[in-house]
Description:
Elements: H1 5-26, H2 28-31, H3 33-46, E1 51-57, E2 60-67, E3 83-90, H4 97-107, H5 112-144, H6 148-151, H7 158-187, H8 189-195, H9 199-204
Antiparallel strand pairs: 1-2, 2-3
Helix pairs in contact: 1-4, 3-5, 4-5, 4-7, 5-7
Amino acid sequence: MSASPVKSFALKVILWLPLCFAVWYYMKGVIGVPTFFLVDGIMTGWLPDFIRDIEFQGHLLNVVLQFTPPSLPDMQVPEGQVAELVFSVNSLMYGYSIPLYTALILATPDEERAKWIHWIIGFIILVLAQTWGVSFDIIKTLLFRLDANLSSQLGFTSYQKELVALGYQFGYLILPAVTPLVLWIGFHQKFIGELAPGMADKFGKS
Length: 206
């Protein structure tokens, strides 16, 4: 007895996943570059007096903070100098959607050109989703993990802090897992209909 189309597709995805994750991890220093540039531009542009630099080390984004003596009452900092504090964010925590989406694309029967177009569009959107997660991780660290004397300088209200917490949870729990599935479904209505008649209409029509 031949396997059902759904089982056959699921098996192909499962077989592609280890290779996609291996390539993604091995190439993390290249794949993570777009996210790094976006996060660096957003965070240093938004808080130039607080975030001096963001350094890229493979999958780690090292956030370099700078503080002047008046903002550090408990530390002895020579006059005219600034103190630096560095913390790291693991961008891989927010980027596993890329190999997952790649495995889905590779397992789907389609023309080579269509595969590339779908993957490139999906990659751009997934990079934006990863940028969301990393950026909110940085803001969360600034607000909730630094000394209160330092985090208070950001001037966030209680309501804004709640929004940051929600944005962080959304970027950590929802976006990496859901976005690749939504993209794949959006690009492959016809194939979904072939896998299970009637499903494409449910996904594609509001």
